[in-house]
Specification:
This protein is mainly α. The chain has helices at residues 3-19, 22-45, 66-75, 101-113, 121-139. It starts with a helix and ends with a helix.
């Protein structure tokens, strides 16, 4: 038998079987049509709009290291969209966070934790605090 003949006989058999159960036959025919009309109405209610090409800032994965990973989470929390490629899209660049507040915080913490005797940063901090005290005393605070 040819394919179309078999398909026609199968559909005729199915329709004959379903003819005895009229409500079920109507539901089986109407339900897909109902869903299709819902999709058409949603599509007509919200027409598509043109949007420019979107480039997102790069985010390092945990395998790149803990610091770049944390910087990627904190510095790009709002996930902005840019019209042009971002600097981090170049191959081989892990992060573009060198000027961020988090990067400076970690570099200052690293410098303080790796403090050596040759480093005079603690003495500089004490000088600044002393000058602030003098300024506070002279202004009458």
């Amino acid at each position: 038998m040819a394919f179309w003949t078999q398909l026609g006989l199968l559909l005729w058999k199915n329709f004959t079987y379903r003819r005895r159960q009229t409500f079920q036959l109507l539901v089986e025919i109407a339900w897909p049509l109902f869903i299709f009309f819902i999709l058409i109405s949603v599509r007509l209610s919200y027409p598509p709009y043109e949007q420019h090409e979107c480039h997102f800032p790069n985010k390092a994965m945990p395998s790149a290291g803990t610091l770049p990973w944390i910087q990627g989470i904190i510095c790009n929390a709002n996930n902005p969209c840019f019209r042009y490629p971002t600097p981090g899209e170049s191959p081989g660049i892990v992060g573009n966070f060198n000027a961020s507040i988090v990067s400076r915080l970690f570099s200052d913490a690293r410098r303080l934790l790796l403090y050596s005797q040759q480093d005079t940063s603690i003495e500089d901090i004490q000088k600044v605090l002393g000058k602030l005290r003098k300024l506070g005393n002279s202004s009458g605070l």
